[in-house]
Amino acid sequence: MIKPIITSLAGLVFFAGVRAQQSAPLVVSADDIVAEIQPTMYGIFFEDINFAADGGLYAELVKNRSFEFTFPLMGWSQPNSDRHSLNENSGFASVLRSNREHNPHFCRVEVKNDKGYSLINEGFRGMGIKEGETYNLSLMAAKHEGNISRVHFRFVDESGKVLGETSIQPGDGEWKKYKTAIIPTGTAAKAQLKITFEGKGTIDLDMISVFPEETWKNRPNGLRKDLVQLLYDMDPGFLRFPGGCIVEGRTLNERYQWKKTVGPIEDREGMVNRWNMEFEHRLTPDYYQSFGLGFFEYFQLAEDLGAEPLPILSCGIACQFNTGELAPMDELDPYIQDALDLIEFANGPVNSSWGKIRKDMGHPEPFNMKYIGVGNEQWGPEYIKRYKVFEKAIKEKYPDMIIVSGSGPFPDGEYFEYGMKELKKLNAEIIDEHYYRSPEWFRENADRYDSYDRNGPKIFAGEYAAQSVAIASPENRNNWECALSEAAFITGLERNAEVVHLTSYAPLMAHKDGWQWTPDLIWFDNLGSYGTPNYYVQKLFSRNKGTHVVPVRLNGKAITGQGELYATASLDKNTNEIIVKIVNTSGKEKQEKITFRGVSRLADTAKITVLQTGDLAAENSLDHPVSISPKEKSVKAKKDRLDVALQPYSVNVIRVKKR
């Protein structure tokens, strides 16, 4: 009988120890600065995947506006035309080629009688139009023969009902640009643009374009206002563009070439989007890039957001998940020149070749670009060889330019280990790491950077997102478990700000009817948009990063999952506040005491912002966009202490001023 009693006493001692450990305070050492938090700590990664550019951020409503798709009339239909019918038809359209170098195709319409020939554009999974708003229409036209006296443009809904119309009177002879506007009398998410003609004859059409007048900053032919607002509200420190795998292309010929995306819109040479046929579960053969959203617009967007521009360029290796085609080492000069010319385009004087192009586009002031990326997520010896050549050429001409390199597509394994080893040998400045893993992985790796060399390369957590099912699965969800797990991981990124200088979730955006990849930070349709729970996690951390990391400990240790809690703390020297971020990943409420050392007295009241739901499978949606969104409350301080209740499955941001 003695042994069981001893065992029970040991158990009592053990559980008492656990209880004492759990009731120990969280200690913030507010007078012990660990590291400066870079302004670039939280940023945005943009890639044209999921119809994020054409059909998304770029507000153009007309798909294949210049008839340059591989199938030139893709996106267009002629419901009452049959060119090959034995019966007399009302007309038909055909696509011809001119001698223009860029965008050489145009549409020739032959109207044969007054039986109602029409040409219809379907938009990007329809066109989102709103009652009472103004939509500016423009086109190039040249009338050749006949008596076509007027061309009508109408928004029609799915039933064919007219929701707004306008018209132009085409002149004879040479190409001429026409502008007009439509103000709809109704709202529709899947409207179409219907073009009809008065009279008979032949007329050529090109660059048929419709933009909402109300764009971001009301720029003509600009960006979709609601989507940019979501980005602006994140207060991002940088904007990485244009990708992603979009940089590499399946082949080198299909890589992203920034020089084709600047200059007059009509001179930009579009191409097939690499994501159009990548995944069998979401084939999108109508996915192309018009490059209306090009490098100038990316730089301009970064400037609008107050973010550092971070362009990524091809290093002469096509996507290694596709062909892995290599540019021979003795043929790298054009790729390197692209990088040097880009720096001149962004920063050069207006009397330089590329600086003049920037000026002519309306921005004589330099964009003050500080970062450039070489390759997206390449791996192996061929990448390292090419990186060395790029680094040498860039540093010789622009020694202050910060170069971002990459450790491959995975956060561990052979590719990663090799890349990190070789880049460290080269004293690389910033290494881009990518993580698409399970929610459990994110929780378990909150201490990933605790042991990284403080004197080694800095880290860019350039692409990450918790995958609720598996990487590239179409069943992945933007649920609360994923967002909560990312928040736990981010505490480790910020706590190690001495090593980690930039971070960004990926991918950024997805059209609900046109996506290829899940999960994504922001979802939208043709009329509305919303931030996911993951978005609100990013926003909370970004807007509450502070300026300097200070320790927050439990029993003398960093808080990396003890009691299912994760935490980081910082000072904001601009506001004289202490910021504590605590993530409670358990299903139980936690009563915690937070003690602040090095502070004689706190302000009487602290503000707590809470992001929480008890349902780990919960999501936001277009119908319920803010189901999971931050809520604010206040708590009384007790001299140098706060007592807080951390709700189950919650992200908590505490801000308190020092007296």
From TrEMBL:
It catalyses: Hydrolysis of terminal non-reducing alpha-L-arabinofuranoside residues in alpha-L-arabinosides. Keywords: Glycoprotein, Hydrolase, Signal. GO terms for molecular function: alpha-L-arabinofuranosidase activity. Pfam families: Alpha-L-AF_C, ASD1_dom. GO terms for biological process: L-arabinose metabolic process. Its EC number is 3.2.1.55. Residues 462-650 form the Alpha-L-arabinofuranosidase C-terminal domain. It comes from the Bacteria. PANTHER family: ALPHA-L-ARABINOFURANOSIDASE 1 (PTHR31776:SF0). Belongs to the glycosyl hydrolase 51 family. This is non-reducing end alpha-L-arabinofuranosidase. It comes from Sinomicrobium weinanense. The lineage of its organism: Bacteria, Pseudomonadati, Bacteroidota, Flavobacteriia, Flavobacteriales.
